[in-house]
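Why does this matter for the project? Reviewers at the last site visit asked to see concrete outputs rather than summary tables. In response, this paragraph embeds two records directly. Each consists of the residue sequence and, immediately after it, the corresponding structure tokens. Nothing has been edited or filtered.
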Amino acid sequence: MCDGLTELIDRMAADLDRLRRCGDARAFFHSTYLRTTRAIAEEIDRGGFSDNAWLERWDIAFAELYLDALAADLRGDPVPGPWRVAFDTARDATGLSPLRHVLLGMNAHINYDLPQALIRVIGPAEFDDPGLLRRRAADHHHVDEVLMRRVAAEDTELGHRIRLSPLDRLLRPANRAATRRLLVEARTKVWHNTGVLDQARRVGGDRYDAALSALSALCTARLNQLTAPGQVLLKLAWRGFGVRLPETAGAAGTPR
């Protein structure tokens, strides 16, 4: 494992210890994310991606967006809108199920952070190289396969840590299937949104900021929808997990 990934995992483990000591509900998402990060690191170590060095850079850039938001919140500093909803829910909704906290964290991280991470590790010239972009897209989607192999294991891990209601136990097979489908659906939209952000950055900083602000608003609204009472996966199946930026968000013109 490269030094960067080792340091990342060590940082995440230290943060998890802190969250658990404080009884912070964010530990549910954080522990899931730590285990999936280790799974991706193992896949990189075995050479499972077409460009493993690029995957390392992406994985670190992606994780740092969440970890920096968490660190800012622990200091009392502002955080992006999607994370504000997820963090406030973890603090205020003490009776919420661990699964809901995991899915709120996944929603903020995948929908809001992931396009930004991809922009950081795919430059404009790479977007203009069809062959290279196909390889990047293939590696991006191979991450889905690694994560989907983790779905049943994460469901079991949550079951060990909490007391499931009879309804939760009844819905577990459906929840696993829905989670797999929703991961694919969200990441397809993420790839689209990454392309919109790429077009925006080519226009200039103001256009990129406007596109990112539009993405934040969409993600924050989706997080707010998911904090209402009820079965969260049923809501996701109806509304969809991901969000989609309009093409105009990246086009030239006066930023809105």
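We now turn to the second protein, recorded in exactly the same manner.
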Amino acid sequence: MLDISILPPLCAGLNALAALLLVAGRRAIRRHNVAQHRRLMLGAFGVSSVFLLLYVLHKAARDFEHTRFNADGVAQALYLVLLASHVLLAAAVPVLALLLIRFGLRGELPRHRRLARVAWPIWLYVSFTGVLIYLLLYPLNPEGL
């Protein structure tokens, strides 16, 4: 039987790696290094895709039960706002990323640039908050509430 307990920290690591690749990819294009930008951004897409596969595998293996954040009051409310924004924006990332890849590879650079101005910060936010949510649900989750 597969030990799925490794999946949450692995998924958090993949999210962190995706965030780093996104930042590096943006830095590369600002230096006009298109080839490096393409490699880094396709790498971010690949890492994010592996994350999504492993995340769904983990959820399916646990019968889609949720992990409770054991806090009350303001802490619980802030966590729920963070989680809601993460989930809503995460739903858009695959579509945005596929469109960016399509526009970039087809040389439709004005469309690629316009979309990237919106999509890049969303993707970065989702990757960063994915790591934060992992930390809140696992190593920092208060016990006994």
